[in-house]
Design brief:
81% helix, disordered N terminus, single chain
């Protein structure tokens, strides 16, 4: 059935509006969604950690890695292809939906039938029934990927923010926590995830309606699959490297150790990686539009990573130094073994952030061969580090992740250097403010925690004090950094505070910003 199109067809792109304005507005709306979702997920994770044991989270992590494996074959890179294609027709959209739907149904059926094969990977019989339910997410993803891709292509990030907030609140808070309280155990995590995906499907189609008629004419598939298949292969190699830690920890150390690692990883991912993912969802379509303008692309890339590292570096350092208080407050006393894991993973995060943005450059410019080669090397390097550090147990696996991230980041520098004619001095200048801010923030947090710990003050008071000290250190760093250009650019791009507003809050912020930038 052909549904009526919205007032503005998704194929017709708005060309009059300045790309920078759309990008910044997109980052604003994604930031709203990110902050809301981070609060929701942190609260959800804290409550569920007290309702469930580490083994439940380990089982869910095992299930996730297998479902993620199937998702690459159920999408074949069609989402990125719909965003990347310069001129998008109605036939392209129908092809995107057809391939996602058909592949989603096929991979779902194979995953349900082949669930017992997971015993050869994790040797855990409890995983089979969980897999047979979670694989429904593959079918759901096939239904919503076209709508979400069209929203991203049109850079309608306000709509995406609304979708994310609604799905997280209903799926995780209302469904997940309720089932956890009622004693559903690991199944509360499973049903919460499925419910969240279903809500995304329904609401995203409301915002980006498209034809549901299937199309099987190969001439329309060829140009999309030319790019999408490369992206699928690349994402699959990326997946192997990103999930190798989960595979090996689950296989050799068991579900409880995997649960500890998974919760520690999520504690650092929520405040940092969600921010990165938010910005990257905006930057990929933005970079794709200027993919042939190398100088402009380099300028936007350097500005983007300068702003991100100014936030990510201090946050990661602060989390590492406050890891004990964070784990005990967020997860509870039974999760104390996750403290040293979080300390190391926090320092891994900045490297993940930097190589993530370099990867976006490769995706947007279509230079995927370099990325495929690097990700393949990364997989083998990570496996080698795991092999040699395996005798040290879970902490050894964590250090392997850190060392492999350093290696991959160096490889991405060589790629971006070639693609963007990027010089080391330009890159170091982009990192400079973030490094200074991280050092000052880290010192404030570390000294605060060290001094208060002597007096045996309650953990919550220490954590609050470290947060305040970290904020003061960060603001001091902004004031002390020698180059104010980046800070002024960010404030100017955001456009806040508004000059026309005379409210006391905006007047205070205006004075505060003048102090920071002079």
């Amino acid at each position: 059935m052909q549904l009526p199109q919205p007032a503005e067809s998704p194929v017709k792109e708005k060309t009059k509006e300045n790309l920078t304005t759309k990008t910044v507005r997109g980052i604003k709306w994604n930031s709203v969604a990110t902050i809301t979702n981070a609060v929701v997920q942190l609260g959800y994770g804290a409550i569920m950690a007290r309702l469930l044991d580490p083994a439940a989270f380990g089982l869910m992590a095992m299930s996730h890695v297998i479902i993620a494996f199937g998702s690459f074959f159920s999408q074949m890179g069609m989402s990125q292809a719909l965003i990347h294609k310069v001129d998008l027709s109605q036939e392209d959209i129908r092809v995107g939906f057809t391939s996602s739907f058909v592949l989603g149904v096929t991979v779902f059926a194979l995953a349900w039938i082949g669930a017992p094969l997971s015993l050869y990977i994790f040797d855990n019989p409890q995983l089979v029934p969980i897999l047979r339910v979670t694989c429904f997410s593959l079918l759901i993803a096939g239904l919503n990927s076209t709508s979400t891709s069209l929203l991203r292509r049109r850079m309608e990030f306000k709509s995406i923010a609304i979708i994310q907030i609604i799905s997280y609140v209903v799926g995780y808070v209302m469904v997940g926590i309720t089932l956890g309280i009622k004693g559903f155990g690991v199944w509360s995590l499973v049903y919460a995830s499925i419910c969240q995906s279903l809500i995304v499907t329904v609401v995203s189609y409301f915002f980006a309606r498209h034809s549901l008629l299937l199309l099987f004419d190969w001439k329309y598939y060829k140009p999309l699959f030319a790019f999408g298949s490369k992206m699928s292969i690349l994402n699959f190699i990326d997946f192997l490297g990103a999930e190798l830690d989960t595979l090996l920890i689950g296989r050799f150390l068991g579900q409880s150790s995997l649960g500890l690692y998974n919760r520690a990883f999520l504690l650092i991912r929520q405040p940092v990686s969600l921010v990165v993912g938010t910005i990257s969802r905006v930057l990929f379509p933005a970079f794709s539009r200027i993919q042939t303008e190398i100088e402009k692309l380099k300028k936007v890339y350097l500005f983007s990573i300068s702003g991100v590292v100014l936030i990510v570096f201090p946050i990661s350092t602060a989390i590492s130094f406050a890891s004990e208080e964070i784990v005990l407050f967020m997860l509870g006393d039974k999760w104390g073994a996750a403290v040293p894991i979080l300390q190391v993973l926090a320092f891994t995060t900045p490297f993940r952030v930097l190589m993530h943005f370099s990867g976006i450059i490769c995706d947007a410019t279509g230079t995927l061969n370099y990325k495929i080669i690097l990700n393949t090397l990364y997989f083998f390097v990570l496996a080698i580090f795991f092999f040699f550090l395996r005798p040290f147990g879970l902490i050894g696996f964590t250090y392997a992740v850190l060392l492999a991230a350093v290696f991959k980041n160096l490889g991405y520098f060589l790629i971006t250097q070639k693609v963007l004619n990027l010089k080391l001095a330009e890159l170091m200048k982009a990192y400079k403010s973030g490094i200074i801010a991280a050092i000052i923030t880290g010192i404030f947090v570390y000294l605060t925690g060290l001094s208060l710990d002597i007096f045996k003050i309650p953990n919550l008071i220490i954590l609050i004090s470290e947060l305040i000290a970290g904020a003061i250190g960060f603001l001091l760093a902004l004031y002390l950094i020698p180059d104010k250009t980046l800070l002024l650019d960010i404030i100017q791009k955001i456009g806040f505070p508004k000059k026309e507003s005379n409210s006391p809050i905006n007047q205070f912020l205006s004075r505060f910003i003048r102090v920071l930038t002079t």
